[in-house]
Amino acid sequence: MPKTNTQFVCAECGYTSPKWLGRCPDCGKFNTLAEEVLSPAPAGKKTARPALSAKPLPLSQVKFEKFERVSSGISELDVVLGGGIVRGSLVLVGGDPGVGKSTLLTEVAAHLAKEHKVLYLSAEESCSQVKLRCERLGLDSDDLLLLNETCIENAEESIAEAEYVVIDSIQAVYTETLSSAAGSVGQVRECASKLMRIAKSRGITFFIVGHVTKEGTLAGPKVLEHIMDAVLYFEGERTENFKILRAVKNRFGSVQEVGVFEMTGEGIFGLADYSALFLSDSRGLAAGAVVTPSETGNRCMMVEIQTLMAKTNYGLPRRMSLGVDLNRLIVLVAVLEKRCGLALGMQDIYLNAMGGIRLNEPSADLAVCAALASAEKMIPVEKYTAVFGEVGLTGEVRGVNFAEKRVNECLKMGFKRVILPAKNMKSCEKFKDKIELVPVAYVSQMIKALF
Ligand SMILES: Nc1ncnc2c1ncn2[C@@H]1O[C@H](COP(=O)(O)OP(=O)(O)OP(=O)(O)O)[C@@H](O)[C@H]1O
Ligand SMILES: [Mg+2]
User: Is the pTM of this model over 0.85?
Assistant: First the structure.
């Protein structure tokens, strides 16, 4: 192995040091030094200068590059990728331990192996473990190539021969050029750029598994996400059967798409009929539960928001939220107290969006308010009533986007009544005959309309 010179560079200020230091002497930050190769260009091989013909072209003369798309065999994954796998792209799949990253990619690899040359590079599990999983999932792709290797240089030859490569995972492989341990920032960055060079020069498609940190972001340097063509997050409570695949970056499609999967012992299945998943059976019976049409990705789904109130035993009431931003909940509680006169100050409040889904959009505000009001008044909200709208600090209900789509989804799911922002009423007039529309301009109006 040729000796390579490396140095340690501080990620914060760029300070360089010949050896690793726990604290950067320049900026004083801890644990920011990562190893880098000093001379990454291979010795004795001059990189060719681009030919002189590389002239800028006017936009009108630029030819379209046709992106060939291949189905992954899992329709939900194709949707998230923007219509299929693009040849020569790098796709990063991140997710919590045990969420099913390896399972998903084994299925994809097995499907692709029927027609293409696919290599599954498993750095975390032995080949027999992968085979065991294939058998459990009932995958009969005898031509799928398995390789148990952690050193990128050793695997390079096999990678170059394949059309599709799954790397499980980028944190478990290492390159010989760096002396730091596999999974360190420098190693992950170097391995990823090595794979990118292979992908772009040979047109090999890569699926790369990435670990996430305790905070839920992808472990390793941010540059890892920059290198990739698509970054997908596989989410979902580990105890829940269904998982959500979300694109956070996609160079060949929208990042608005989500895929819903069900995880069983026999494998992972895309769920086309996901709408009723996020609703409970006790809807309409217990106080504190309200359904809202949520626009997650390009899809609209009905999500139930449940709240529970209990008298606080300590001076400081507790607020807990799963699926809705906690700060958002605290603001809405204050709005309800001040603008609608609800006494929530001495109540512990727990809020949960059903099914482990995350509601990031402001249109869920009004439904959260409705759920809180229902819990406070101990009156259940009628089963076939849905609520959506954004709530401002003055207690006004503001219009939201995709109002028509939301009302349409309510209609499709058999709801009979929708409480919506008055500002969105105009665009939804056409549904007036099919479903009862209740426009509201203030939160207090919504409470009056509900109870
Ligand atoms: N024998 C089994 N029967 C049913 N379900 C199983 C079985 N073995 C594993 N699973 C399911 O598969 C999940 C693990 O999937 P997988 O190994 O793909 O996760 P992962 O995201 O790759 O995890 P890691 O980060 O540890 O590699 C488990 O959480 C479990 O739900
Ligand atoms: Mg795994």
Answer: no
